[in-house]
């Protein structure tokens, strides 16, 4: 099988880390026609926008894309490329696996959880207004459709990945109507998925539990705002943004991207850590059903990290991006 996949190198360190991900995937033997299209700061002069139509068309055609970080131009009035893609492609689920790797400094040893964040509504629906001069209101939207969809997604993901438990995170004790509806939907969906253990937890308690004993959690599903906050917090549990992959998934399309930004401070020096980009590639392979190659890459990367001999500067080493990538390829 040969896959057609859109690859957006992005800005800053994007091209360097995306090349690393591509080289590792190619070396693992998965056959991919990479359709490379540019988006971000670098194309604004040519196209008058950071997200040209042909980039969206390419993803719509191929259904799968992997994307490097793009610099968000400050104060130039362009819509964020990430928000633009999410809306244009209806990418309703944000998925962030958070896992400890030996060799990556962190406070915990055995975290392996997935945060599933609803990507389209909640307080992020953008419905806000001023009330006179002295108050402002943001409306929290929770719908049955989006809640059912995201919780079903979480259960499907749990099953596909052989996971045992889904926890719905909410604040239904206070927001009885909005989060109450989310929780009701979650419980109903759980009823039809009895083979996976289900529980729910209030977001404040969840925050404490995640810091105390993150190893106890498996798949967590939650509305947009809690997902935004807890997913960054969870990244902090395993060594930070440089090592955490992510994906935005829709009905028949998916855009995979690491969590970190374009890191202009280290761009073009061949020193960026490609771990997050490579793990993002691993997520993409699992999505394609290429589990064996995904597993092999994950193992090779784990070995390089664990050996601790060839590491990029952020992990305490002095290897170049290309040396670190080459070492992973050697171990495939
Ligand atoms: P950033 O993640 O680019 O950098 C934060 C710090 O982490 C920097 O010191 C950077 O050198 C370091 N860092 C990040 N990734 C690294 C890696 N792979 N290896 C080694 N060190 C790494 O966040 P920042 O500085 O807030 O944002 C820079 C630009 O990226 C901004 O224009 C922002 O809007 C954009 N951005 C884009 C994202 C995307 O397209 N998905 C996500 C986050 C930020």
TrEMBL record:
Q: Which NCBIfam families match?
A: mito_nad_idh
Q: What class of enzyme is it?
A: oxidoreductase
PROSITE patterns from the xrefs?
A: IDH_IMDH (PS00470)
InterPro entries tied to this protein:
IsoCit/isopropylmalate_DH_CS, Isocitrate_DH_NAD, IsoPropMal-DH-like_dom
**One Pfam family of this chain:** Iso_dh
Family, according to the entry, reads as follows: Belongs to the isocitrate and isopropylmalate dehydrogenases family.
Q: Where is the Isopropylmalate dehydrogenase-like domain?
A: 4-328
Q: What is this protein called?
A: Isocitrate dehydrogenase
Q: State the species of origin.
A: Clostridium colicanis DSM 13634
A GO term (biological process) for this protein? tricarboxylic acid cycle
Identify the cofactor(s): Mn(2+); Mg(2+)
> Which SMART domains does this entry report, sorted A to Z?
Iso_dh (SM01329)
Molecular function via GO? isocitrate dehydrogenase (NAD+) activity; isocitrate dehydrogenase (NADP+) activity; magnesium ion binding; NAD binding
Keywords attached to this entry: Magnesium, Metal-binding, NAD, Oxidoreductase, Transit peptide
Q: Where is the signal peptide?
A: none
On whether Protein biosynthesis is a keyword of this UniProt record, the answer is no
- Does Hydrolase appear among the keywords? no
Q: EC?
A: 1.1.1.42
């Amino acid at each position: 099988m040969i896959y057609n996949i859109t690859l957006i190198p992005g800005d800053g360190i994007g091209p360097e880390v995306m090349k690393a991900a591509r080289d590792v995937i190619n070396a693992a033997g998965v056959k991919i026609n990479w359709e490379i299209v540019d988006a971000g700061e670098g194309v604004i002069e040519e196209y008058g926008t950071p997200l040209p139509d042909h980039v969206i068309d390419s993803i719509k055609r191929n259904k799968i894309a992997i994307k490097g970080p793009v610099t968000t131009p400050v104060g130039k009035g362009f819509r964020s490329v990430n928000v633009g893609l999410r809306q244009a492609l209806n990418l309703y689920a944000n998925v962030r696996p958070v896992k400890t790797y030996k060799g990556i400094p962190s406070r915990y040893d055995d975290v392996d959880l997935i945060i599933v964040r609803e990507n389209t509504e909640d307080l992020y629906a953008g419905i806000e207004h001023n009330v006179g001069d002295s108050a402002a209101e943001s409306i929290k939207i929770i719908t049955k459709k989006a809640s059912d969809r995201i919780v079903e997604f979480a259960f499907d993901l749990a099953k596909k990945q052989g996971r045992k438990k889904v926890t719905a995170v909410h604040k239904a004790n206070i927001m009885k109507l909005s989060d109450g509806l989310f929780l009701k939907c979650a419980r109903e969906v759980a009823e039809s998925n009895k083979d996976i253990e289900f529980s729910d937890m209030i977001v404040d308690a969840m925050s404490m539990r995640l810091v105390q004993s993150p190893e106890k959690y498996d798949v967590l599903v939650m509305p947009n705002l809690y997902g935004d906050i807890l997913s960054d917090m969870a990244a902090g549990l395993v060594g930070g943004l440089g090592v955490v992959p992510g994906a935005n998934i829709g009905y028949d399309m998916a855009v995979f991207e690491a969590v970190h930004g374009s890191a202009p401070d280290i761009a073009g020096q061949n020193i960026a850590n490609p771990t997050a980009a490579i793990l993002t590639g691993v997520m993409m392979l699992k999505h394609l059903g290429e589990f064996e190659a995904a597993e092999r890459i994950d193992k090779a990367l784990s070995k390089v990290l664990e050996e601790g001999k060839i590491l990029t500067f952020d992990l305490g080493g002095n290897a170049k991006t290309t040396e670190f990538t080459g070492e992973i390829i050697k171990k495939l």
